[in-house]
Amino acid sequence: MASSSSLTQEKKITLKAADGKLIEVEEAVAMEMETVKSFFVDNDNATNDMVVQLQNVSRTPPPPVEEVKAFDALFLENKSNDQLNEMIMVANFLNTKDLLDFLIDATAKLIKDNTVEYDGEFFEIKNDYAPEEEDAEIRAEYNWVFEGLDKD
């Protein structure tokens, strides 16, 4: 049986700089690099255990992308739903696309697989249906929406 730490480890991709040095990075981090991402898109037979050659990089890439990922996670840590929603409103008003995309992605991860009721509370959406209407009409028509959801 696999240990719990091995189950939570993310897939790694190995990058090789022109100087021959190798660096392993998490798949999600590597896919932020368009050159690496296009390698996998362009090569149907490519697998994560392949080494991606970075011919125009004279030395192993520094860790700034990984540091940014860690900062992003730390930035969102302990933020309430209200704070997250407020940051989205501000980013939208200021038209800061990258920040808005980041916050919307974080929100999507938070609400994924939750109940309609939880998501309604998260976004402060008032349910306009009487319980009888919702149960009889809505749940019957859109039953697939309610399957396999977490209560929180």
From TrEMBL:
Pfam families: Skp1, Skp1_POZ
Protein purpose: Involved in ubiquitination and subsequent proteasomal degradation of target proteins. Together with CUL1, RBX1 and a F-box protein, it forms a SCF E3 ubiquitin ligase complex. The functional specificity of this complex depends on the type of F-box protein. In the SCF complex, it serves as an adapter that links the F-box protein to CUL1.
Keyword ATP-binding: no
Family: Belongs to the SKP1 family.
Every SKP1 component dimerisation domain range: 97-144
Gene3D superfamilies per the UniProt record, alphabetical: Potassium Channel Kv1.1, Chain A
Assembly and binders: Part of a SCF (SKP1-cullin-F-box) protein ligase complex.
Annotated pathway: Protein modification; protein ubiquitination
InterPro entries: SKP1, SKP1-like, SKP1-like_dim_sf, SKP1/BTB/POZ_sf, Skp1_comp_dimer, Skp1_comp_POZ
Full protein name: SKP1-like protein
Keyword Membrane listed: no
Domain SKP1 component POZ: 11-58
Keywords from the UniProt entry: Ubl conjugation pathway
GO terms for biological process, alphabetical: jasmonic acid mediated signaling pathway; protein ubiquitination; ubiquitin-dependent protein catabolic process
